[in-house]
Write a structure and sequence with these properties.
β1 and β2 form a beta hairpin. The strands form three sheets. Strands 3-8-4-7 form a four-stranded antiparallel sheet, sandwiched between helices. Strands 1-2 form a two-stranded antiparallel ribbon. A two-stranded antiparallel sheet has the order 5-6. The protein is globular, with a radius of gyration of 23 Å. By secondary structure, it is of the alpha+beta class. Helices cover about 50% and strands about 15% of the residues. The protein has three domains: about 100 residues, Arc Repressor Mutant, subunit A (Orthogonal Bundle), CATH 1.10.10.10; about 170 residues, no CATH class; about 80 residues, Winged helix-like DNA-binding domain superfamily/Winged helix DNA-binding domain (Arc Repressor Mutant, subunit A), CATH 1.10.10.
Length: about 400
């Protein structure tokens, strides 16, 4: 690596274009992500995450040379005959702004994105396994698919960048309040994403979309929220997963079984139950694809599966955990699909970030309010995009993911 790179001083929450190229390595990015959560040695990283120890150790040293990590402890190596083991911690975050990100070759961007996605879902898995993901009733978890024009896409990206830039300031304010000892800290992971889906924007708009619906003036805040009775009706893993998939594209029961799984008899019954509840409707009927099959009914979603805090609090914890798994599974499918079809990094100004922060109760609620505001604004962005578009094919099929949850790591 050129020695001149070491003399570049990174900005507190960004990096130069030259430093971006130096950092655009799958393992260096993954190391930075893991060290933002907990101190680790190169050998511990290789055991828990992967990689060849010699290369991982070199990546640790390079990151230390560049001022992104530092040695926090030295101890005897755990293996027989091993020398001193250096334990590192993160002291600088590598956040790629759009200008720096564009300077990184596309192949390296794909590798960095893979590392960022892997580390984020490792945090999610840790929280789910430890039972902290749904420990806070007012945790936030949502994803949605919508078609945006360039103006709305840019607006959304700036809002997500704004949240990312605001989190350190929020954490400092929380630390001052926590210093009084009156509240317990909440170790929090905040995840933000907006990326291009391989789905056609026209198909996306065929699903029950919001561009042709005016918001209800009397109930605008909870326009897409379900009541407690509806939430209980959805407290079935298959019904919940069906509804989530239908927010992305029209589907028949047989298509769902082929792509997602489940028993055809049970899945068909769930589709019918959702239709009876007024959450989905038959969008199209066509001859069944199988020999001797009857009419195949294609359904689309009528209501977005978003739960306000009051409704969420009425559900038993076991039900909340099952629904969270459905939300996470369907969102992960969207991410994997976009990466597999090479649309995830198709736009240099796409957004994918996650950050661990230590908050108090006041700051935790502020994060929830900010994410709720973004979620509530998505239908307006799509309505405005459709109104401005001369051709619907020109819109950007977009997946937006928002989350804030308690981490098991202090």
């Amino acid at each position: 690596m050129p020695s001149s790179v070491k003399t570049l001083t990174p900005a507190p929450w960004g990096i130069s274009a030259k430093m971006a190229k130096a950092l655009a390595d799958h393992w260096r990015v993954r190391i930075l992500a893991e060290l933002s959560v907990r101190p680790m040695s190169p050998s511990r990283f290789a055991e828990e995450v992967g990689g060849e120890l010699t290369h991982i150790s070199r990546c640790f040293r390079q990151l230390a040379d560049w001022g992104y990590i530092e040695i926090v402890e030295e101890r005897l190596g755990r293996r027989q005959g091993a020398a001193i083991e250096h334990v590192y911690r993160g002291i600088q975050r590598a956040h790629f702004d759009t200008e720096s990100w564009e300077a990184v070759p596309r192949k390296e961007r794909n590798a960095v994105s893979h590392a960022a996605v892997s580390s984020y879902f490792a945090r999610v898995s840790e929280a789910v396994d430890a039972g902290t993901f749904d420990a806070e009733i007012d945790r936030h978890l949502s994803w949605d698919s919508l078609a945006l024009d360039k103006e709305a896409w840019g607006h959304l990206g700036r809002r997500l960048d704004g949240v990312l830039d605001w989190l350190p300031e929020l954490a400092v304010e929380a630390s001052r309040r926590l210093a009084t000892g009156e509240e317990s800290p909440i170790p929090t992971v905040v995840g933000l994403s907006a990326f291009r889906s391989p789905q056609s924007p026209v198909t996306m708009l065929q699903v029950s979309r919001f561009h042709d619906q005016a918001p209800a003036p009397s109930d605008e805040q909870f326009e897409f929220a379900f009541g407690p009775a509806m939430a209980k009706a959805l407290s079935n893993n298959w019904r919940c997963r069906i509804l989530l998939e239908l927010t992305h594209r029209p589907l028949s029961p047989s298509q769902f079984v082929e792509e997602i799984g489940g028993s055809m008899t049970h899945v068909s019954r769930c589709f019918r139950e959702l239709a009876e509840l007024g959450l989905v409707e038959v969008f199209e009927e066509r001859p069944g694809g199988r020999r001797g099959g009857g009419v195949e009914r294609i359904y689309r979603c009528l209501r977005r599966p978003y739960f306000d805090a009051t409704t969420w609090e009425t559900l038993p914890k076991l039900v909340r955990e099952e629904m969270s798994q459905s939300f996470l599974g369907s969102y992960l499918d969207r991410v994997v699909e976009a990466m597999a079809t090479d649309t995830f990094d198709a736009d240099a100004d796409r957004h994918f970030s996650w950050k661990p922060v230590l908050l108090d109760r006041v700051a935790w609620r502020e994060v929830g309010v900010r994410l709720d505001e973004i979620l509530t604004d998505l239908p307006n962005l799509e309505r405005q995009s459709v109104a401005r578009a001369s051709e619907l094919d020109s819109l950007i099929p977009t997946i937006v993911g928002l989350a804030s949850f308690r981490s098991p790591t202090g």
